[in-house]
Design a protein that fits this description.
This protein is mainly alpha-helical. It has one domain: Hypothetical protein af1432, CATH 1.10.3210. It has nine helices and no strands. It starts with a helix and ends with a helix. 39% of the residues are buried.
């Protein structure tokens, strides 16, 4: 199912290869974190789908609002993700959980779902790599927000952050 969801994400983003590549990189790191943290099968799937679809509302937000801020993505993303997911599964609990994570993927407080945590860590690593913020900000984020051993090790390996 994940490959079909990724295909839908690519189709929806069209020629916007920057956004497609971002989602694919976040997906790869989130799945890496989940694997190294020994997530169970359901959590692996939730992490994978959430990561693939986390920014699915960007183009919609740009078209409707003229911008794509994080809170707008959190507002609009779940409905778009739900429509995609419902084409490929009738597992309501899975869909609700993935959409719930997408509805909070720019929210860093009160993270209670390990899949949400893996997504946040992967997204921050990719955003830093793509030049979205400076190294001191990533260092602070790793120290304050990263909870997984795998995410911390990736930050150290990739960027020398401890």
């Amino acid at each position: 199912m994940t490959s079909k969801i990724i295909y839908e994400m690519i189709r929806l983003n069209g020629s916007d290869t920057r956004r497609i590549n971002h989602a694919l990189k976040v997906h790869g790191l989130a799945v890496c974190i989940a694997g190294h943290e020994s997530f169970g099968e359901t959590d692996m799937l939730v992490t994978s789908l959430s990561a693939a679809l986390h920014d699915i509302a960007i183009r919609h937000c740009e078209a409707v609002y003229g911008c794509c801020g994080g809170k707008l993505q959190e507002k609009e993303g779940p409905a778009i993700a739900r429509a995609i997911l419902e084409k490929h599964t009738d597992d309501k609990a899975l869909i609700d959980r993935v959409c719930g994570i997408i509805a909070r993927h720019h929210t860093y407080k009160g993270i209670e779902d390990i899949c949400h945590q893996a997504l946040i860590e992967a997204d921050l690593l990719v955003n830093f790599d793509e030049g979205e913020f400076e190294k001191p900000a990533l260092t602070a984020a790793v120290r304050k927000l990263f909870k997984t051993t795998a995410g911390k090790k990736l930050a150290k390996t990739m960027f020398g952050i401890t």
